[in-house]
TrEMBL record:
Keyword RNA-binding appears in the UniProt entry: no
Organism from which the protein derives: Pedobacter heparinus (strain ATCC 13125 / DSM 2366 / CIP 104194 / JCM 7457 / NBRC 12017 / NCIMB 9290 / NRRL B-14731 / HIM 762-3)
GO terms for MF: phosphatidylglycerol-prolipoprotein diacylglyceryl transferase activity
Tree of life domain: Bacteria
Entry's transmembrane regions: 20-39, 70-89, 101-124, 186-206, 295-312, 318-337, 358-375
One GO cellular component, as annotated: plasma membrane
Source lineage: Bacteria, Pseudomonadati, Bacteroidota, Sphingobacteriia, Sphingobacteriales
Similarity remark: Belongs to the Lgt family.
Keywords noted in UniProt: Cell membrane, Lipoprotein, Membrane, Transferase, Transmembrane, Transmembrane helix
GO biological process: lipoprotein biosynthetic process
InterPro entries associated with the record: Lgt
Protein name as it appears in the record: Prolipoprotein diacylglyceryl transferase
Length: 384
């Protein structure tokens, strides 16, 4: 396993390059990039079809930087410099434990002040170059795909918060023992929490900019499936604990690689299992018994489902139907993978289920209802 990018580079080239990037985080970033690409493509396609429309907005140009703008840039610059300079001066600590460095109160005040001045000066300089003797109001055209930068930020912030909240609800006993560390830790993220909270934030911004909810949902379906597939690569490569139950069954096919059937996740980032003899460093644990590598199964299945959604998107004309199909496929995929996946189980009225099984079942039903609604109201939705 490759808990950090440095481990991956060492595996490929045999050299140790100390970098403060964990593998899971890199693939989360790549998942957002993949989602950005798919969302943008769909925005442009739907605008070309006349489903979405550019809007006219009025903005004021030629104004100098305001005191509030200068102050906000200075505060942002201070935070960047406060942490960045401290991290560079304590690089070994940053490489070995980036989370502690970033989330602690430690920093470099001089670095913060320098960056605060730099950010404020830059904002003043840029606004001053475009300053007019008399500011004027102009009309500009904003295309739907130009919202993507704003949408990505909102999805990232609220998605992370939702993923943390749902994960801590799922692991309540661990949360009550150390709530602060559980909330601030970068590990332990529940996909459905990110989907629900991040999706709600995206719908809010889209609606504020004149994009109707069903169209926004349809745009998101293929992109979210692709992003999920890419993100799961990070789960597998880092060994973040999202693996399956113990699998000591013989391989069904001789040609199947061992790591694709049963895997022990050596050097996993979750530090679960037994200590590896002779290993030195932070990530030296390996599971005592092999488990189903469920993340890699989801990578393959969800990428195939993305290709299916991407292929049929041209044929779907009814608003809401694409997202309904996405919810049904997503729910089915996750429900069945839960059958061989390690997770906390709840018991209600004699029924045992995981949080993901419950939510995936609800999503499948919601998707079925949305498809049914689209079909039954096709005349009403014709001019939606």
């Amino acid at each position: 396993m490759f808990p950090t990018v440095s481990h991956f580079i060492e595996y490929l080239f045999g050299i140790q390059v100390p970098l403060p990037f964990n593998t899971f985080g890199v693939f989360v970033a790549l998942a957002f990039i993949a989602g950005y690409w798919a969302f943008t493509k769909e925005f442009k396609r739907k605008e070309a079809l006349g489903i979405l429309h550019a809007v006219k907005k009025t903005i004021t140009i030629g104004k100098p930087a305001s005191t509030i703008e200068l102050a906000s840039n200075a505060v942002f610059g201070f935070l960047i410099g406060y942490k960045l300079v401290y991290a560079l001066l304590n690089y070994r600590l940053f490489v070995s434990d980036a989370q502690t460095v970033l989330l602690s109160m430690k920093g470099n005040i001089l670095g913060g002040l320098c960056f605060a001045g730099l950010f404020a000066w830059w904002d003043y300089h840029e606004k001053n170059k475009a300053k007019l003797p008399k500011p004027k109001t102009v009309e500009v055209t904003q295309h739907p795909y130009e919202l993507m930068g704003n949408l990505i930020v909102w999805a990232a912030v609220w998605g992370f918060l939702g993923a943390k909240i749902f994960d801590n609800l799922e692991h309540w006993n661990t949360f009550v023992q150390d709530p602060i560390n559980s909330l601030l830790s970068f590990s332990g993220l529940t996909f459905y929490g990110g989907l629900i909270c991040g999706g709600a934030a995206v719908l809010y911004i889209a609606r504020k900019n004149g994009i109707k909810p069903l169209h926004m949902l349809d745009i998101g379906g293929p992109g979210m499936m692709l992003a999920y597939s890419v993100g799961r690569i990070g789960c597998h490569m880092s060994g973040d604990g999202d693996w399956g139950v113990v699998n000591v069954n013989p391989k069904p096919f001789g040609w199947l690689p061992d790591w694709l059937w049963a895997y022990t996740y050596p050097n996993n980032v979750a530090n679960e299992g037994e200590r590896i003899a002779g290993c030195v460093g932070k990530f030296c644990n390996e599971l005592p018994l092999p488990v189903y590598p469920t993340p890699i199964y989801e990578v393959v299945v969800c990428f195939i489902l993305f290709l299916f959604l991407w292929r049929i998107r041209h044929r779907i004309k009814l608003p809401g139907m694409m997202f309904g199909i996405y919810l049904m496929l997503n729910g089915l995929e996750r429900f069945f993978i839960e059958l061989i996946r390690v997770n906390t189980k709840y018991e209600v009225a004699g029924l045992r289920f995981t949080q993901a099984e419950m939510i995936s079942s609800m999503l499948f039903i919601a998707g079925l209802l949305l498809v049914t609604y689209s079909v039954r109201n096709k005349e009403k939705l014709a001019n939606y």
